[in-house]
Amino acid sequence: MSVTLRGGGSAEPTGSVRWRRRFTSEGATAWLFSAPAVLLLVAFMVIPFILAFYFSFTNERLISPRPTEWVGLRNYTRIWEDPVFWTSLGNNIVFSVVVVPLQTAFALLLAMLVNQKLRGVTVFRTIFFMPITVIMAAVSVIWIVLLNPQGLINAFMEIVTFGNFTPDWLGDPQYALIAIMLVSIWASVGFQMVILLAALQDVPVTLYEAARLDGANTWQQFRNVTLPGIRNQLLFVLTITTILSFRLFDQVWIMPDRPGGPLDSTRTLMVDIVDTGVFDGNIGRGSALSVVFLAIVLVITFAQRRLIKQEGDVR
Amino acid sequence: MSASAVTSRTQTRDAEAARAREILARQQRRSRAIAYLVLILLAVFFLFPIVFMFVGSFKTDTSVIADSGSLKAFVPEPFVGLENYQQAAERGNFWTSFRNSVIISGVIVGVGLIVNSLFGYALARLRFRGKSLLLAFVVALIIVPFETLAVPLLLIMSELRWTNTLHAQFLPFLAQPLYIFLFYSFFLGLPKELEEAARIDGAGAATVFLRIAAPLAKPAYAAAGILMFLYSWGQFLWPVMITRTVDVRPLPMGIAEFQGLPPTQWGDIMAYAALMVIPLLIVFIIFQRQFVQGVATSGLKG
Hints:
heterodimer, A: MetI-like fold, 14 helices, B: mainly alpha, MetI-like fold
């Protein structure tokens, strides 16, 4: 405080000249600091972003001797009429409707378990988080073996269901998406766990003490102290898990015999985008799909923002 | 009321309290035992695929599948030593992909840390025109997922004749709004006094950043660096889109290709998986606290 005052005082007489020199040199440094990131962002985010919208109204192709033509909404109407698009979107929706609540609840359970005062509990936190460090591509190939009809998962199913239910997980269109769900939860629940764990640790202990003094049991404490205390992070986890589930790609590309198979039962929007944009070379339609994808992500994000704001208004 | 009655009453009260304490302790012991049981079962659930991978990497190719339905899956027999690892290196071109991944992740982490922290610092501390606009721009870009940009980006790369190169795989990931914002909020949270004192002593903005702000921001660098490494090492979508040949493919593409390459030899594939996972596991075990914190802070923007 005194330092700033002294600085301001000594600058007073010579005044604006020195001030301006410092200001402009600071401005120059600031731009020097910002320029690399800004240029990279413009080149690799802003321009592709604008192009995504532009191309979605054209017949742009990856490799084509013909000139690009404006086609209006044709890409979008074709997508709308394409059953494969609806299958993909449907798979994404089914996946997120099942996985988001399940994985979030599981993550919360794990976070609460490792938030206890128990000896060696950090070891368990480490173990629950470990799948995050196994790259999804590696996870996928490991689980191909575990999920094969004679694999460990079916050995377990045989015991649990007395041999009544041992499907060919990845080969049967009925069960492939369920298998992908299992793998996805195993691989990424640790991520949600650490976010919720941080949230749990921020809930003041005094609140629990007060609740206990009021005679609240464990469930009441969970309902009335824990849940409201971590509400925003919980909403954040729900949002990010929903968005991640719409980005589903690696597992469904690697695990089935062919990407998105069998019979498109694990085909997702991202598989559709890659198939259309890369392998068909149809940049126009691929871009339109990307715009649709962005719209979905934005809707989810803004829904979360509104929910959080509402909470702010109430209080 | 006699003195003896009072003492006897306190005695019974003491006895009751002791009994209550004992019951509580017993309950506590039981609930602790249950907690450990649940924790151990969950640990088994999270560990068995990883153990399966490591064990499988030391077994013959046929027995990986043949034993995959019983507990023999966790016994490294018949043991083949490092043969699978040799095969993964030779047949699967492991080291080529490893080199590519090291270059791609190395550049993303190295350059990314510099570029993003410089911009984050400028936004947090320096006065210049257009700052608030730039900040709004960065925040807006956080929600744009890479998936939306991938298709037009592919066309750009193709026009530049950059498809199937290494630099096409790191250039789009150097500047990232999330990390810029992470640095921005970290620098904003640092106490200003030290930097101001240095400024008054005549140090320029660059010196102040290098000598004072950056060293104080080590936790932010650790968190961002770890996240950059984690996500770039595992990146799969973009390599699928932009690589065509083995010589530029990173590890995740490498293992996907290797797995589809007949004859499928599972021992070799498990060895490949183990080799590509080990660097991350090592980083994770050494920097565990920063690792977990980094992932948790990446969730703080909510």
